[in-house]
Structure formats: structure tokens, C-alpha cells
Amino acid sequence: MADKLKVLSLTRCEGLKRTPDFSGCVSLERLSFYHCPNLQEVDSSIGKLKGLTNLDIIWCKSLRTLPEEVEGLVNLKLFSTRGCKKLKKLPSSIWKLASLSRIHISSTGITSLPNSIDNGKHLFQLDLGDTPIAELPTSIGELTQLEYLSLYQCPNFQELPESIGNLTSLEYLYLSETKIVELPDSIKNLTQLKVMCIEGTLIRRLPASIGLLERLKELNARHCKELEGEIPPEIGKLSSLRILDLSKTRIRAVPMTINSLTQLQKLDLTDCNELQELPKLPLSLKCLRVRSTSLRLVADLRNLTNLVEFLCQGSGQAPGQASNPMQTVPLSLCLPEPSMDSNSVVFGLQLPNLRNLTRLDHYRSPLREIQLDGLELLRDLAVRECEFLKGLSISLRNLRQKEVFDCSKLHEVRFLGKMELLEKLHVKKCNSLGKLSSLSNLKKLKSLLVDECDALKDLEGLEELELLSFLSFVRCGSLERLTHAPKSKPKMPNGCRMYVLDCAKFQGPSRSTFSFEDYWKDEMKKSETAS
């Protein structure tokens, strides 16, 4: 029977220290050892498996060596030792297997590759991630069919050889969390490249030659803390680019040529705190994230009619002592008028053109009122740290989740019209908020959480919420009761869970957790006693 066996897989065999003799398994095509923690040795007879195409030895943490006899695996296509941390060297013969197309040796102890890679012409995947490898041999350029190369989380890796430019078939290049400081000029030759990730590296600049990567779809330079100055205008030549992530870098400016990226769908500039200006952006954008403490000027973004997610945060400073402070402006971030404080900004939301927007995060605006008319598809809305916001009126029938945090001057939130899809409402640290109005319009509200709103007294229409399942009030010092006892019982379900903590004036049950039925009985007793 063994001579007809084609697949052998051993998983979590804790007693296995050495593989069996494979001499009788001449038909074997797939061989795998998964999570065998005590496996130390692979029998040399493995070289007799001439028909073997897949060899997986994964997370066998005691394995230190492999026999040179693996050179007999003349039909091997996949070789993986992922997670074998004590394996520090591969047999030199592994690189001579002409049929090998995929090598996965990530999370091993392997420190280097051989200087000569003789028969790697069919290799199209090479995963070296999370290894101590410090450099690649010049011969890496001989892997002309390579499509995928990963050095992700190789903490000792510092420099790509110029021969990397010979990998003209390369489509995916992952260099994230390495120590590289620059990309070689030969990178321009990788004309088939689709994805390049340099996240968390020490790269200081993007070369102008990057503009020659016309097939590049994703460029991730997130968290490159040394990346500074201006992005080269040649980036505007990346006609296939869909995702550009420059978040948490020190860039000062994005070139105007970015408007030429007609395929760009996601632009992330979160926590780019030296970014001062944002130019006109391509209308293809679906997701835009911008957050900078230095942001002073943003071009008119009303043409971004395909946006489904938007986050923008400027400096959040007050509009000074202007006699007629602006109440609403088109979606733009403007330089202050002469009568305003020299460091101030005016940022407003009036977004009727962004009809496809489904998520909006609005941070640190000095505006006193936010206009959201026309956002018919908006599902998630977050308004945070808007220090000068005084009123908020919402009439968005597709809204499902809403958060309002740290708006210290907000005195009222109004829900206008039928907002029958809103399921969750969370209000926090709005110290001037005295009233939530027209809650009865929120027919499908299931969860209402209010934290640290010390002035809150009135919950207009709360008793009409038939689907409410959770209600929480924490540190709302002025709140006395949830509903006033009417002649008929409110529509709120008896099983609605309630949590009230540190609300000094609250007159409901003394315990912090109770049901609406408990609360209502308590209210009725008080009403009868009073009469």
C-alpha cells in the first residue's frame, strides 16, 4: 500500500523526532509536517521521492538541518519550512532544483542565500519574511521569472542590490519593517510591479524614477518616519495606481500631479503632521483620510463624488475674534481672513455633491454648525473634538451608526425626519449638551450610550423606541429620569437592559444595572406615592 501512497500529512505529532524511511513511498507527491514540535531530523531517504511536488515542513521548531539528498527531488515545485526557527541554513542543493517554483522560508533562522543561484529560472515566489537575512546576493537578479519577493519584517536587511532591477517579471515586492534607507535607481526597471510595500522602513525619499512603474496599483509607505519633504511629481505618472498610503510620514506636500492618477481610489495621509497643503484630487477617489496638525490649505473637494469614506482633520484652532464668523462653507480648508487670528483655519462641511459617501469622520473643526444635507447614502458618522460646534441637526435616512465625542459647546442634537435605520448612537464628553431631541424618529435604534454629558436633562421621545435593547448613562450629573410617567406605558421593551452609573441626580433604581420593566415599576410607585 505504501508504494501507492500519494499524500502524507502529519500534524501535531509531538512524539515524532525523526521522519520515517521514505524508501517504500515512491509514488508520494505531497509530504507535509505541521506543528511537530520535537521533529529534529528528516531522513535522507527523502531524496528517493522523485515524484514529490510539494514539501511542507511548517512550524517544526526543533528542526535544525535538512539532508543534502533533497537534490533528488527533481520534480519539486513547492518547498516550505515556514516557522522552523532553529533552521539556520538550507542545503545548497535546494537552489539547483530546476523545477522549483515556490520557496517559502519565512520565520526561520536562515541568515543568507548562496552567492550563486544556478537553476532558479522557474522560481516565481520567494518568501524570506521574518528571517535574520541582512542582504541579497547579486545573483538574485538571475531569477528573471520571479513574481513575488517578500523580505517583510527582516530587521537586519538594509539594502537592495542594483541587480534587483533585473527582476523584470516581479509583481509584488514587500520590504516592510526592514532597515532599508533608499530604493535603488534600478527599481525603475520593474515595469510589471503591481504592489510595493515599504511600510515602517527608514526610507528618506521616493526616487523620481518611481514614475516609470506604470503598472503599480498599490504603494504603501505607511509609518516611514524618515520619509520627509515633497513627494516627487513623477508620482503622477503612475497611471494604474489605486492605493497610496503615506500615513504617519513627515511629508510636507503632495504634488499637484496627483490629480493625474485617474485610477486612484484610496489616499491615506493620516498623521502626516508636517503636511500643510492638499491639492486638487482625482474624482476617482473612494476613500480619503487626511489628518495633520499643520494643515492650512485644502483644494475644493466637491468634485469627489465617488467618495464613500472621508476623514479630515486640520489644526482645529478657533476662528479668532471675527465679527461675523463663518457658519458653513463648502468642503474646503481655507486660509484665515485678515480679521481672523493668524494661525486659525476655517473648515466646514456642506457636502451635497458627495452623494456616494457612506462613512464620514469629522475631527477638530472650528465650525459652529455642520451641514450634512444630500448625503443620502451615509451609514456611519463620527463627529469628534469639534470644540466650537453648538448645534447638530441630522436627517439622514440611511444612517446606521453615529458617534459624537468631545464637543464641549454642543448644546443640542436634533434628529429630523424618519431615520429608521439608525441602530447605534454614542454621545460622549459633550459637557454642554442638555437635550437629545426627537429621539422618536429613530425607530430602529437598539443601543443608546451617553457618557460624561453633565448637563443632559431631556431625552425627548425616548419612550417611543420600541426596539431599544441597551441604554447606558455614565457620569451624567444632571440626569434625573429617563421618561416622565405618562398615562400609558412607554413603548420601550420590558427587557431593555439599562446601565446608569455615577449620575448623582438620577431617581431610578439604586442599583446600576436593571431592566426597563424594573425602571417603569419604580416610576409608577413614585407616581402613586406622589398622588
UniProtKB/TrEMBL annotation:
Source species: Rhodamnia argentea
Keywords assigned by UniProt, alphabetized: Leucine-rich repeat, Repeat
Residues covered by the Disease resistance R13L4/SHOC-2-like LRR domain: 93-173
Pfam short name (any one): LRR_4
Keyword Ion transport listed: no
Protein name: Disease resistance protein RPV1-like
InterPro entries attached to this UniProt entry: Leu-rich_rpt_4, Leu-rich_rpt_typical-subtyp, LRR_dom_sf, LRR_domain-containing, LRR_R13L4/SHOC2-like
PANTHER family xrefs: LEUCINE RICH REPEAT-CONTAINING DOMAIN PROTEIN, PTHR48051
